[in-house]
Amino acid sequence: MNSEKTKTTLVLLLKWIFICVLIGIFSGSASAFFLVALEWVTQFREHNSWMIWLLPIGGLFIGLLYHYYGATVVKGNNLLLEEYENPQKVIPLKMAPLVLIGTLITHIFGGSAGREGTAVQMGGAIADQFTRIFQLDNSDRKTLIILGISAGFASVFGTPLAGALFALEVVFFSKISLRSSILSFLTAYIAYFTVEFWQVKHTHYSIPIVPELTFLNLLWIMGISILFGLAALLFSRSTKFWGALFSKTIQYAPLRPFIGGIILALAVYFIGTTKYIGLGVPSIVDSFLTANAPYDFILKILFTGFTLGAGFKGGEVTPLFFVGATLGSALSVIVPLPIAFLAGLGFVAVFSGATHTPIACTVMGMELFGIESGIFIGIACLVAYFSSGSVGIYNAQIVKGAKYHLYQKLNRKKLELF
Q1: What's the CATH code of the domain at 396?
Q2: pTM assigned to the model
Q3: Residue 70 is part of which domain span?
Q4: Do 228 and 189 share a structural domain?
Q5: Which of 30, 119, 191, 397 would be 151's cystine partner, CB 3.0–4.6 Å?
Q6: Quick one: pLDDT at residue 415?
């Protein structure tokens, strides 16, 4: 009897390891292709600035593509979270090519968007296909979705620990099994090493000088982290505001990115710079070396919120990195701490506030910048998390726990006052 049970357990273990390997390889390869293609379209756009005038045509194409072929997957990351919380049906595989094409079109013509959403959606769609292949139930589907998110995030940013934790933390207040946790880490590393195998490089950042752990420095960090949290709140509200405005004023969905593209192209023309479109990685790198203008982060919030709200495709995380890094860099003029240190804190803290994932963001900061600044990164992510409000970039994300209870108490006190 025991030998039969052991055999069954071993078969189950091997099955899940096999699934992790497949998801990691397929998702990692998809991310590797995406990163190479994204770099190519970005360079092409930078060397052909006239491409910005074709943004309305690109937007119309994306709008028509999703209107006629992608209605079931238009929710993007929110669809993954909804299917995790309340499994209904397998996520269509077409989510992967549609978001890939949509994101590349957005970037080649000059929309302001990121890449995490694309990689996560590709990973989630690929992972969920194994539901049919292995005849898995809804409980196992939840594990697959976590693995897909983990693989996509880890592979696109080159941060396997943070990728695994992000996948777990973004659904943190739903039931998570120990199996899901272990498999999430395994899949993240397989996806990460797959990208390494394809010799696709990630951007490297560094904090060369870490200040001493003093009471005064901690006060400074807590103060600016509140600002990082407010920037995250503004980013989340901006995307939702523009999305609601476009939906309300333009009934025919394909016209939203078309009209949005016209406005974006004109805005870039009159501003006279392409700094706030695309990923903005060069600006992020520069923010670790040179103090940014105090309005850079606001303009990136405006451009990204408008781009995504209009219906263009891409992620929010790299723009969040831009917002945090440039805000931290700008604060270096008045805050007596190293510029790279402040940019690095903002880089992960704004992300933490907008996604309600302080643990994953803390680990990500240590993976990117080194463990020496870990205590400061953890404080910044936690403070930004609590000061960013209850609304994040993912509508379908369930926000509970300490932050949820804090805001519930604050709301009750407001009602008592009135």
Answers
A1: 1.10.3080.10
A2: 0.94
A3: 2-197
A4: no
A5: 191
A6: 45
